[in-house]
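S1.2 Input.
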Amino acid sequence: MNQIRARQVAGVTFVVTSALAFSSVAWVYFGMLLVDKPLPLLTAVMAGLSDWYFWALFTVPVFWLGMRFKVDRNTWPRAFALHLAAGAAVSMLELLILTTFRHFFYHNPWNPPAASFGDAYLREVLRSFHFALIIYCLIVAAAHAFSYYRDLREREGEAGRLRVRNAELSASLARSQLDCLRAQLQPHFLFNSLNAISAAVRERR
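S1.3 Output.
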């Protein structure tokens, strides 16, 4: 994936991540208010933003994996196994980063932290691993969709170039035929044709 495309993916990722993250902030903040367990706004921000922006760090490399190893008719067993392993590894790593952040920097008065980091990580994995794996699959699916769209545009462009080339060849053939007709109408051609006809008549006499 070239540098320009990586920047485009990063830009789209930032916009989508920001929309999801701040909607999560609103969900956490107002949701806790509705159940009479209010959170400080900063706590809600840290809870809502952290998971989504940590995933944003992995989006470009995961998108590259989706572009590089497509699940198609011929390669799906190998690509499926690779993405299953990569999805599990990326999900575990993202949850490790999230657990580290929440264990040392995040405090929710209504949800006491685990006794140890290992317990906190295990709880996070049991609670969120399937969700993290779904996010990985969605990023790979987006990469597949982009790849197929790009291939379609390239085929359409090639078909357009072939149509233009065919039109140029047809126009060139038409010009050649017209030049041939013009040559046949030249005076010397008519004179030669008349001589040939006259000679054929004399021979038959």
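S1.4 Remarks. The radius of gyration is 35 Å.
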